[in-house]
Specification:
Length: 405
């Protein structure tokens, strides 16, 4: 015969304390005594507050927490920074210097150099969880920087320059609004005196390249091949020292100013409900209500679906929302341009009733699959993401617990 939890409440309180000690301010367990308890108990499952940095780290692969990947403008606007070296060699790595001769002068000649054909693992972490939709960046910038301490002109041409996206495949990168081969114009500077270093930076944005277009494809890798031609035009004298170096670096700068258009994200997390577990526990519930409290300080709407996975069987045993994804986070209202700041945090409460049959299935799950779709407020109106924005999520389950007969 079923009976309400009585003295067994002490065990339940112990379970609740171990689930989450960080939300004691909301669930004051010290005040819950035998005299005033109710058999209906709210069990906290998740309470997290995420900053911009934490959200980007959470959606990234290893290395996303590298501080060089995320910067803050003086006004607080966040921007992602991705950089890598295309090519870097010292002259001593490809030229043999005579003994006791650290300096070679004269006319070296004209030659064609095929620099390493490779791919840049820019590892654009912001796209790592993207399974659909797109980001739009209003002012992305790519910088290509040539550092040269070899005393001769070396003209560079990109014979291959393209990105690859797991969602949209390959797209050609056009600089100076032309497809490869792309000659960097004007030619990179070179030093006139041994020991000097010349640095040339080429900057491409939406006015002189198709950077906005290829970023819309959610790229993850940049593929390139570079050809260099020396001494065009002929320059006399040339010089090369044993410490001379030539390098090509790329920097992609993505200010978080734009919009997300039905951007689909996905992730899988560990999960344990702790009740109606078929493994043998004698604590169970006839029904439950999952309660989601969301506090959104971002200008982004989010509809999500939570699916429960039993990794032993490999099956999704149930989903929280029967009718597909549901809006859980409502975008904060945005103030006027140019700041486009969120004016206040929006609190949304979502409740989902679950009967015993569904609880029994959810109790068998040990993984939680999250699928979400993000859309900017007033899409496609532009928004900005600032460093002080936060997202708070509280997930609890309200149940009437029983023990076995």
């Amino acid at each position: 015969m079923k009976k309400s939890v009585n003295l067994y409440l002490l065990l339940i309180l112990a379970i609740i304390c171990t689930v989450s000690s960080c939300i004691k301010d909301e669930y004051d367990l010290d005040k819950l005594t035998y005299a005033n308890y109710s058999p209906e108990i709210a069990m906290p499952l998740i309470h997290s507050i995420f900053t911009v940095q934490e959200i980007l780290t959470m959606s990234a692969d290893q290395g996303a927490n590298d501080p060089e990947n995320l910067e803050t403008d003086p006004d607080g606007l966040m921007k992602l920074m991705y950089n890598d070296t295309l090519f870097s060699k010292k002259a001593s790595e490809f030229i043999t210097f005579p003994p006791m001769t650290p300096l070679i002068t004269g006319y070296v000649g004209s030659d064609t150099l095929q620099l390493v054909v490779d791919s840049i693992d820019l590892n654009l972490e912001v796209y790592n969880k993207v399974i659909g939709g797109q980001f739009y960046f209003d002012n992305p910038i790519i910088h290509i920087t040539i550092t040269n301490s070899i005393g001769m002109p070396i003209n560079l041409t990109f014979t291959t320059f393209q990105t690859w996206s797991p969602v949209n495949g390959t797209i050609i990168v056009e600089l100076f609004s032309t497809p490869p081969p792309i000659a960097l114009t004007p030619a990179p500077a070179f030093p006139l005196t041994p020991g000097d270093v010349s640095v040339t930076t080429y900057t491409f944005d939406k006015t002189n390249s198709n950077i906005q277009d290829f970023l819309l494809t959610s790229p993850k890798y940049l593929y390139y091949a570079v050809q260099g031609i020396t001494n065009v035009p002929a320059t006399i004298p040339n010089f090369i020292t044993d410490s001379s170096e030539f390098s090509v670096e790329v920097l992609l700068e993505l200010p978080l100013h734009g919009y997300a258009s039905f951007l689909s994200l996905g992730d899988t997390l560990p999960f344990s409900l702790g009740i109606n577990d078929p493994s043998g526990s004698d604590i169970y519930a006839e029904a439950a209500t999952f309660v989601i409290n969301a506090y959104n300080g971002f200008p982004i709407d989010a509809v999500i679906q939570l699916s429960f996975l039993d990794t032993i069987s490999g099956n999704v045993v149930d989903s929280l929302f029967y009718n597909g994804e549901q809006t859980v986070f409502e975008a904060g209202p945005v103030g006027p341009a140019p700041a486009l700041r969120v004016t206040n945090i929006v609190h949304t409460v979502t409740e989902v009733y679950v009967d015993k049959a569904r609880l029994d299935r959810i109790g068998s799950a040990n993984k939680l699959i999250i699928r979400g779709t993000l859309t900017s407020a007033n899409n496609p109106a532009l928004v900005k993401i600032y460093s002080d924005y936060t997202l708070e999520l509280k997930l609890a389950v309200r149940v009437e617990l029983f023990t076995g007969s």
